Structure formats: structure tokens, C-alpha cells
């Protein structure tokens, strides 16, 4: 039966589509018509009323940790995909710091197999070096052939400038980005941002320069090697300034930020709540302000969640011993709409760019199209729904979130992709 | 008037009245310690666990003595290393101890914030006996008690804390407590051992030990922790002793009247020379005695508050 989505608004900035209210018919997963349907008989259609909702191109999170293989107790490819669908994403890129790392074609094939027949498209990012150890290049050509969309030693920066230069040079042959987790571990090793708060709380500090040094190093090497550099989870004022300057100088650098880094500051750590422990750490209000500026002026291209599920028993521990990271997929859109769209920092068009088209462009992936005959790849937003985050409603296997019980305005109410629809908590096959 | 909290996690934010009450109460217990029979029935029937996740001799003995002199049942629970490496999570350990019906937990742990975490998973009164490089409130209370005993007041005095400020829980608790009580606080040490934002706490930074001696009434000299990472923060022990160590010649060069304190154990010849450690300026052993009285006061006030 064909699917009729009625009374929906339609917004696709890069195709110039902005329709206040229309009906969409989807047949075999493909857009059949975009126009008011006169005969809406439920004999012919499965009808879903999307009054007040906005259909946008499927959202994409380019920084997700799926934990499989290795820590299937925290997340699997399947539960991660369900978490993504529930959060409003139709595609994700998964990071290589699994166990074993994504540093061979076999692991790529394994992950792709786990992700088969899923609503959510899964694109592995491969390790830049074997075991992410920063010593020997991973088989990058073979990994490219196996279908990876980028290279990263995420969890750490690529160890030395020498290896980095070779990774840049080699990846350039395939036009794939190198995604860098910027951290100089000779300066980090602490548990929170270095500030007056780290002094008061007695937590070992991580100075902002541990990130900024590597951002600078990477920009310098990327310019020299003419490579595509993508800065992951940018978190400090100066990092944003360095990326802005590099972009002005024509260097091929892009960047992403997480919702927690544009929303929260290290003031939150006063409770020693390990849900606020992440790497990079939460920074100061000054850093948040510059990140906001960077989002506005385009220095920051994408919003990515750095979805990092962790078991409750590991998170419920002494702060310094707890692992870093948060469940991000299911709050990312809500926090972005609340903090950026409703506060008039970004327009909805800009939100769509930063959460749908820009990440796909960086990873050389095709953009979802709203043209008749294209396969339907949609995120359905209700930008005005007021809701409260409840970690126990997450589809992720884990519940570590600093946004629990937070009141948000706006969310994704459904997604459509690969002839499947996830709507009202239900997975529907659309044929 | 009771304390405003049922735990003692640190001195940050603790009101002046609470500190005053603890110091006043300690005065009465200090008198008990001079009696032939040094025991009162105040906490009879209360069970106190000394939960030490980090090795400690004097703090643990001081707490244990305080507990016994208040007639509480004291249990020692020592774990070396972190809970993570032991297999059992910290939370499970606490739940097990809790199930044995304890009233108070005195905790020392290498990770900052662990006492606060304990309050969320246990109903017992929690007393911080040192958490990472965060706070060591009873040490600062006994330091303040000793200052008051010596000078008859705290307000208006100039106190300089000397040594590795960045990795010292004693320093931080002293800073919070002394500022609340109206003292003027400065810190002195190699710049690698001074936290970047310390002045935001209202503390003056001095890099010259002679200046620190000239300008202060009291030097609270910290132990340079030779066994820890501290060694990476200065070139050599010899250089530290030469530029930040305190000996008689240095005191005489600068002025005559100053009080030297030290939380112990002392590295003789490093931060203090023996003629100072044993000399007329120091009140180091009085601090130790006062420590028992101050801990008795804390246990008593917390144990009878609810």
C-alpha cells in the first residue's frame, strides 16, 4: 500500500524547496508525488497526518560510536541504528575505536553486514593507523574499496606530525577526509577543563591548549599536504578562531561541534556527576560563545553528537575513573532546536545544512533529494513540541546523558529511509 | 545550634558559624585529652567505618583515636588501589558496608569528589578524610584550631601556604577555611605547582620564600610528595630545598617572629631543616594533638545532629 503523508510542510534548502503545506505519496520507498491528493481513501493509502510537522532531508550524524565489535553490552550496530532512528537520523558515520579497531576490510564488512536491511545507513570511518596506535598506516586503499568514508584515530589524535602528513597524502588519492580528534596527550590526561572550577573541585585539569595545539598542527600539515581535514568535536574559543582563519586562507578544513559543547559549561561539574564527563571536556562560557559565533558564521560546518554509550556500572563511579562521553543521538536534534533554532542563532535552513547536507558533503555522500522518483530519505520535525528527556525511553542500550529531565522544544517525530518508516516509536515497512 | 550539614565533605561553602562551632567544641574535647581517663560516652552505640582507599597512617590513627575516645565502634576498612582494579565497583562496596548498618563513614580516596558521590549512595554521615587533590577538611580545621590556640584569633592574621599547591588537598581546604574565618591567605611555591587560576579564589601568589617569611605571621609548609608525580614539576630536590626550603639562617635573615606549621610527615632537609622542624617556631606536634580533638568535635557534631 502506498504511503500518504498529508498536510506536511516541506523544506529542502539546497533544492530550493519550501512548501508550507502539501501531501506526499511514497510508493515502494520512492517519492511518487508532491501535491494535494484529492481522494485520500484509506483503501488506497496508509495515511499519516503530518499537520504542523516539517519534512526535511534525512539528518546525518557523522560522529557516532557504535561499540560493536567489542562492547556489545553498551551498544550494537542494531541498537545504535534504532537509537539514531529514534533521534531523527537516517544516516550515521561510525568511529573506528572499536575492539578490534576498524583497521581492516574484514571489520568494515562485518559492520556493514550488521547494518543490513536497516532504516539507518551506516558508514564506517576507518582507523588512520593500525590499531589507532599512530605508527603504521592502515590499509587505506583497501578500506576505501570496502566503503569507508573517512579516516580517523578518534579517541586520540594521530600521534605524530610525520604520520599525519603521510595519512593526509595517502587519503588524498581517494579524496577522503581525515577526521581528527585534537588532543595533545602530553598536556591532557586530566578529568576536566582547566579553569577556576578545576581548582575548586580538585580535579586534574586538561588545558584548552591541548586541543588548540593539535588543531593548529593539523591545519599547518593539511595545508602543506593539500588534504581534507575535518576537526571533530571542536570545543575551545581559540580552536574556532584557528579554523576560521584557516578557512579564510583557503585551507580545506571543516569542523563539527556536539550539542553539549554549545550548551553546557564546566560549571556543571560541581555535582561531580559523571554524565558531564566527556572528552573534550566541557569548557567555559567564553568558549561556548565563540562556538555559537562559529556556528553562525559557518566556521563550524556540522553538528554531530559524538554518541558514546557507556555501561551504567562504569559511569556510576568515582569521577576520575569514569569513562568519557554521552548518549547523543536521541537528544541531538532536540537540544539543537531548543538552543540554536528557538534562540534565533540558526535558521531552520541552517540547522538542515549542519545536520543533513554538510556532513554528507564532507564525507562525499549523495544528498537526499525531494524530486519525484527519488527514494524517500526524510526526517520529520515537530519544531514546537515541548518534551522532557527521559533516558529510560532511549532506544540506545545505554542511558548516560547529561540532558536527562531537560525540557526541550522541538524534536524529530519520525524518519523515512530505505523503504522503512520509524514513526511514533514504531518501525513500519513501507512498500 | 547544630551544623548546617550532616556531612563534612570540604570547607568550600561551609559557613563561618559552622567552623566556629567545630573549633569551640574541639576546645572542650581538647580538655578531655588531658584527663587521666581520656574517654567520654558521647557516641556510644554508633558505628563508624574508616574507609581508606589510599594509604594513610596519621590521619587514620587520628580518626580512630577520636572515635574510640567518643566510645564509638570503629571499623577499619583499607583497600589499596582503586575499586576499578579490584573487580568490585565502589558503589557495590559501599552498598555492602551500608547493609551492615553503619552510622558514619570516614573516607579517604585518591579520586576527587568521592565523598560527595558517597552521600548519594549511602545514608550514613560522610566525613572526607582527603579526596584526591581536592579537600582535606579536618586537616584545615585542626590547622585553624592550632592557629587560634597560638594567636587567640584567626581573623586578620596573614597565613602563607608553602609548597605544591596544585596537588594539595590540605592547601585547598586551608584556603577555603582561612578566608571564611577572615585571614589573609597567600601561597608560595614553584610556579609549576601553583594552579593557573588560584588568584580567583582571593589568594595572593608569592614566588619568593624570603618575601613570604617577611610578610606573614604563619607559614603552613606542605610536604613535598617525593613519591608522587611532584618530582616532574621542579628540576631537583636540591633546587627545591635551596629556593623554597626553610632553615634557621633563612628565618634569621628575614625576621625573628613567625610560626611554622606542617601537616606531616616532614621531609627533613627538603621543605624544613631539622633545626626548624624541632625548633621554637614550630607547633607541629600541637597540631597532631589538636587533630584528635578536632576530629572528635566533627564526629560528635555530625553524629548527634540527626
Rg of chain A, alpha carbons: 21 Å
Biggest interface: A-B, 22 and 28 residues
- Biggest sheet of chain A, open or closed, and with what strands and sense? 9 strands, mixed
CATH topology label of the largest domain in chain A: TIM Barrel
CATH homology superfamily name of the largest domain in chain A: Metal-dependent hydrolases
Q: Which second-level CATH architecture of the largest domain in chain A applies?
A: Alpha-Beta Barrel
Q: What multimeric state do the chains show?
A: heterodimer
Describe the model:
The complex is a heterodimer of chains A (431) and B (306). Chain A is an alpha/beta fold. Chain A folds into 2 domains: 113 residues, Urease, subunit C, domain 1; 305 residues, Alpha-Beta Barrel (TIM Barrel). Chain A is built from 12 helices and 18 strands. In chain A, the strands form 4 sheets. In chain A, strands 1, 2, 3, 4, 5, 15, 16, 17 and 18 form a 9-stranded mixed β-sheet that branches. A 4-stranded parallel β-sheet of chain A has the order 9-12-13-14. In chain A, strands 6-7-8 form a 3-stranded parallel β-sheet. The radius of gyration of chain A is 21 Å and the shape is globular. Chain B starts with 15 loop residues before the first helix and ends with a helix. Chain B has 306 residues and is an alpha/beta fold. Chain B has 2 domains: 135 residues, 3-Layer(aba) Sandwich (Rossmann fold), CATH 3.40.50; 151 residues, Aspartate/ornithine carbamoyltransferase (Rossmann fold), CATH 3.40.50.1370. The mean pLDDT of chain B is 93. In chain B, 41% of the residues lie in helices and 15% in strands. Chain B has a 5-stranded parallel β-sheet. Chain B has a 4-stranded parallel β-sheet with strand order 2-1-3-4, sandwiched between helices. Chain B has 12 helices and 9 strands.
